[in-house]
Amino acid sequence: MDFRKLSIKELNRISVEEFKQSEKLPLTVILDNIRSLHNIGSVFRTADAFRLERIILCGITACPPHAEMHKTALGAEFTMEWEYYADTCEAVKKLQAENYKVLAIEQCEHSVMLNEIYIDTHEKYAVILGNEVKGVRQEVIDMCDGCIEIPQFGTKHSLNVSVAGGIVLWEISKSYLSIFNK
Amino acid sequence: MDFRKLSIKELNRISVEEFKQSEKLPLTVILDNIRSLHNIGSVFRTADAFRLERIILCGITACPPHAEMHKTALGAEFTMEWEYYADTCEAVKKLQAENYKVLAIEQCEHSVMLNEIYIDTHEKYAVILGNEVKGVRQEVIDMCDGCIEIPQFGTKHSLNVSVAGGIVLWEISKSYLSIFNK
Question: Does B159 contact A at CB distance below 8 Å?
């Protein structure tokens, strides 16, 4: 079979204006004290790719615009909606008041393995990615409606945070793919 | 429900020695001219987490040990098996001679969408991640047994290469999870 690479034009990506007006997945990403500008930028790029509705930046997580973040966000920091909360708990509280199911990506007692999650596409979700070293803080986890764990079988404790985010956002987004394929 | 964070001890990660002796997924990652040491290191970390058998570094892709790569690999560059080929096509040829199905991660005509791939767990696979700007080269793609595309709905052309790798390796690894859960 001929696997000819598609040109940028053939990818038919939407414009910033079209993106802003398009239907989004009811899925918000919360960044709880992410230190690395590369990781923040990379999450913006992933969120743009899966057309998520919003990123909530919390605590020490830097906000756009930022030259270093731009190196990995590549402009997605200008298409994605974002908000900032000094206190991650406040963000969780607000989302739950709006009927979001808030899920921490963390290795916890009673975590649900990512290959076993059930996504109800009539619900709205928010997932929390935690600090590179400390993960999601226990006080934030204590407020959550659930925890998702990525099964891991290696020597390291965890995946890179932007990679973990990509994997979880892909897995959840898959449940909603029909929105964009109709 | 109580979502108590697990301690590092409770994660029960295996040691480097156990890792080296453990059964791996029959899945190899080929890095075709990856420029960023952060991306290379991050792929090492992902490959360790999913207990892949090997990483093949090609062309300008840097080899361990490297201080800058270590910042994202965090030691996974010492657990993972790796090989180097100056020419990516040589690596593909060798793997195909060993009956691997070699799949490029690329947006091509006739690409299979990642949510529609079929993995035969009796087969061995290799996936190719391409350069940050140019992707997988057409001459490499032309040798492949297939192309996998991650469905994307945003304004950007593509995901970060280590994030794309994480997503694809997770999706393929899922098919083999029973190996580690038995």
Answer: yes
